[in-house]
Amino acid sequence: MEKRIKMPLHTTFVGNESPFLDVIRRHSDLNVTVCTRITGKARKFFGSAFDYARKHAIEILDPKEFMARHRPTDLIIVAGYPKLIPRRIIELPSIGIINIHMSLLPAYRGRHPLNWAIINGEKYAGVTIHHISEKFDEGNIICQDRISIKRYDTIADVYAKAVRKGNSLLGKTFRMIGSRQFKGIKQDRRYASYFPPRTPKDGKINWNEPADKIRNLVRALVDPYPGAFFYYRGKKKIVDEVDILPHIQRCDTKIGKPFLLNGCYTIKTCDGFIKLVKLRNSTM
């Protein structure tokens, strides 16, 4: 039996990025945005919820202020918020609190799921909209769908696909409110996996690894992420693009030591050779 929902819905958004806010405003009265200001390249790449809210005259609350001085609302939508939501907030909205997670849950619970999917050589990722529980990314799944990861896709390409898919699923979720489907389905723990937050130091390249694994690391960390890197002559070199070369005869070359080949710096790995196509803000 479907539940009648009073319209328009009063919605609160929690998160620093803005790609889903147009859809939320289209389907509800978005009257509070819980966020902090982001700056630099991340602001341009992800969009700023703070700037969006200020432009559209939406009330802005700092996350600490919201957690301490919360108020009644119909629906809370979370995207990219890195902390657990306390029970008192989960129980606050009359309809529910949902999260937009960029993986096919229960796989890739945790932080930076798209980056991890590329690093791990996955051919598909996805987006899941789910209810929030007191544990990270474990609530009932409302809807989800997958996106492809092509061989030469970078994190920028995959993120753009995920945003488009997330907006589509978010519109679908709004239409499901009040129905049995909105309650979602329980996640199957047998297929669960969890990945921790990544830090800049995690981008250090290990040239003893296979060439394809190194290439995956590079494309998972292009701008505005900190980047895959190595040190050469005492200086940090951030790599934004590489090519895997077919077998070449350089038996005297040490793994991890750059050398010039046809005018391009090339580095031997455990199973092949990688050409450095693009370095970030530097040369060799």
Record keyword descriptors for this entry:
alpha/beta, Rossmann fold, elongated, Methionyl-tRNA Fmet Formyltransferase, Chain A, domain 2, 284 residues, 2 domains
Give a quick summary of the entry:
The chain is α/β, with parallel strands linked by helices. It contains eight helices and 14 strands.
Describe this structure in words.
The structure is a single chain. By secondary structure, the protein is an alpha/beta fold. The chain has two domains: 10-195, Rossmann fold (3-Layer(aba) Sandwich), CATH 3.40.50; 200-279, Roll (Methionyl-tRNA Fmet Formyltransferase, Chain A, domain 2). Helix content is 25%, strand content 27%. The protein has helices at residues 21-27, 40-46, 49-55, 63-68, 87-90, 113-119, 155-176, 211-220; strands at 10-14, 29-34, 59-61, 75-79, 96-101, 109-110, 124-131, 141-148, 194-195, 228-232, 235-245, 259-261, 264-268, 273-279. Strands 3-2-1-4-5-7-8 form a seven-stranded mixed sheet. A five-stranded antiparallel sheet has the order 10-11-14-13-12. A two-stranded parallel sheet has the order 6-9. α5 (87-90) links the parallel β4 (75-79) and β5 (96-101). The longest helix is centred in the middle third of the chain and has 22 residues, at 155-176. It is elongated and about 75 Å long. The model has no long low-confidence stretch (mean pLDDT 93).
